[in-house]
TrEMBL record:
<dbReference type="InterPro" id="IPR050725">
    <property type="entry name" value="CysQ/Inositol_MonoPase"/>
</dbReference>
<dbReference type="Pfam" id="PF00459">
    <property type="entry name" value="Inositol_P"/>
</dbReference>
<protein>
    <submittedName>
        <fullName>3'(2'),5'-bisphosphate nucleotidase CysQ</fullName>
    </submittedName>
</protein>
<dbReference type="InterPro" id="IPR000760">
    <property type="entry name" value="Inositol_monophosphatase-like"/>
</dbReference>
Length: 249
């Protein structure tokens, strides 16, 4: 059945199912805390990797929870997944964690789905189902880490008279911009390709600005998957944010 799906529908379908699996693991009452996070990671990863290899056997695969096979770098199409983005939040049984299923084509995050199973009723946002962005807030809201707000985000928010909004996973933050719960996600604290590929694909499809914090394009399927920074924001704010970040150097 999955072989007949478009890439976008496959991504959304698998992200949704992985989310259900993660809720079942969480609700089993067998694990808690860090053990819950580890169990969720391994269970969701096994499902996603098996499903993608079955549905798209000719594509490459990069997962946070699997040993990297850099042979993927020679391929045009590579699925990039994070079975549990926000393992800490998942282990704490919070709502701000996500499942990422993204597809990079020729280094560009082209297709993606982000599931937010911890929200009431569960939510899946994808690159092929586009909703209009809600009206922005009067003051720009900047999404930052719960424990380590990026210094650039703090400085730029101050310069723009913005407000800081603390949230868990990268996927939850990026989707908060898509959902109209904030206007700007400026991150500089270190991430990997699996943290942003699916969120960037979804955000870009919804018309949001997506780039590195120096304004350069975000590239995926690199030999080294470390991708330390990104900016996802309403297009009207992009030039000003990038200008202020450059002035911090």
């Amino acid at each position: 059945m999955t072989g007949e799906m478009s890439d976008a529908r496959l991504a959304a379908h698998l992200a949704e199912i992985a989310g259900r699996i993660l809720l079942d693991v969480r609700d089993s009452a067998v694990f808690e805390g860090k053990a819950l996070g580890n169990a969720g990671d391994s269970t969701a990863n096994e499902f996603l990797c098996h499903a993608l290899r079955s549905a798209r056997p000719d594509d490459g695969l990069l997962s946070e929870e699997e040993k990297d096979d850099t042979a993927r770098c020679s391929l045009s199409r590579v699925w990039i997944v994070d079975p549990v983005d926000g393992t800490r939040e998942y282990g704490e049984q919070r709502g701000d964690w996500a499942v990422h299923v993204g597809l990079a084509i020729d280094g560009v995050a082209t297709v993606g789905a982000v599931a937010l199973p911890g929200l009431d009723g569960g939510v899946v946002l994808s690159s092929d189902k586009i909703a209009a962005l809600p009206a922005p807030a009067p003051k720009p809201r900047f999404l930052v880490s719960r424990s380590r707000p990026a210094k650039e985000a703090v400085a730029v928010a101050k310069a723009m008279d913005g407000e800081l909004v603390s949230m868990g996973s990268a996927g939850a933050k990026a989707m908060a911009v898509v959902r109209g719960e904030a206007e700007i996600y400026l991150h500089s604290g270190g991430q990997y390709e699996w943290d942003s590929c699916a969120p960037v694909a979804v955000a870009a499809a919804h018309g949001l600005h997506c780039s590195r914090i120096d304004g350069s394009p975000i590239r995926y399927n690199m030999a080294d998957p470390y991708l330390p920074d990104l900016l996802i924001c309403r297009p009207a704010y992009a030039d000003r944010v990038l200008e202020l970040v450059a002035d911090l150097d």
